[in-house]
Amino acid sequence: GTIFVLNGPNLNLLGRRQPEIYGADTLADVERRCRAVLPEGCDLRMLQSNHEGALIDWIHEAREAAAGIVINPGAFTHTSIAILDALNAFDGPVIEVHISNVHKRESFRHHSYVSLRADGVIAGLGIEGYEAAVRRIGGLLAGG
Ligand code: DQA
User: Fold this and answer.
1) CATH fold of the domain at 2-141
2) Is 110 part of the annotated catalytic residue set?
3) Where is this site: Transition state stabilizer (predicted)?
4) pLDDT tens digits for 72-98?
5) Which of 34, 43, 60, 94 has its CA 20 to 30 A from that of 131?
6) Residue 17: alpha-carbon gap to chain centroid
7) What pLDDT is attached to residue 118?
8) What are phi and psi of 43, to 5 degrees?
9) 4 Cβ partners below 8 Å, 6+ apart?
10) In the chain, what are the domain boundaries?
């Protein structure tokens, strides 16, 4: 099946935005690294939008088109009941990724709506978190 890797606002600037927090690698680097660990028989679609509705539309599309979702919702993590509701309408595995350790940062980053749905949450591993998430989706799809 296809794994959607969804990225929220400002992640298009990855590598240039606050590199002391998010590192020097770009989203293209993330995609390359995810493809390198893609589980046998899986496909990957790397997506990014700064718009909440676009992310929701892709999650709806995933209902038909994706076996699993890796999502870094960016700041929508902490605000978006609508993204949580969309993920609740998706049946496959969902892994939430944060590049930074959100728990070490401002208290408004400590709560995640998306975590109420996610099967796993990764924070603070840098972009390696995406690779771990893709591997985990593969494992969950294979039945454990
Ligand atoms: C982030 C953490 C969020 O709090 C922040 O708004 C982001 C990126 C991360 O990957 O560490 O945009 O999701």
Assistant:
1) Rossmann fold (3.40.50)
2) no
3) 17
4) 999 999 999 999 999 999 999 999 999
5) 60
6) 18
7) 98
8) -115, 165
9) 45, 47, 58, 62, 65, 66, 68, 69, 70, 71
10) 2-141
Q: Classify each residue of 82-96 as buried b or exposed e, where b means 16 or more C-beta atoms within 10 Å of its C-beta.
A: ebbebbeebebbbbb
Q: Check if 130 is active-site.
A: no
**What lines the ligand 1 site, CB under 6 Å?**
10, 72, 74-75, 77, 98-100, 102, 109
Contact present, 85 and 94 (Cβ < 8 Å): no
To test the ligand 1 pocket, which listed residue (72, 96, 97, 105) has its Cβ within 8 A of the most ligand atoms?
72
Q: How far away, in angstroms, is 8 Cα from ligand 1 center?
A: 9
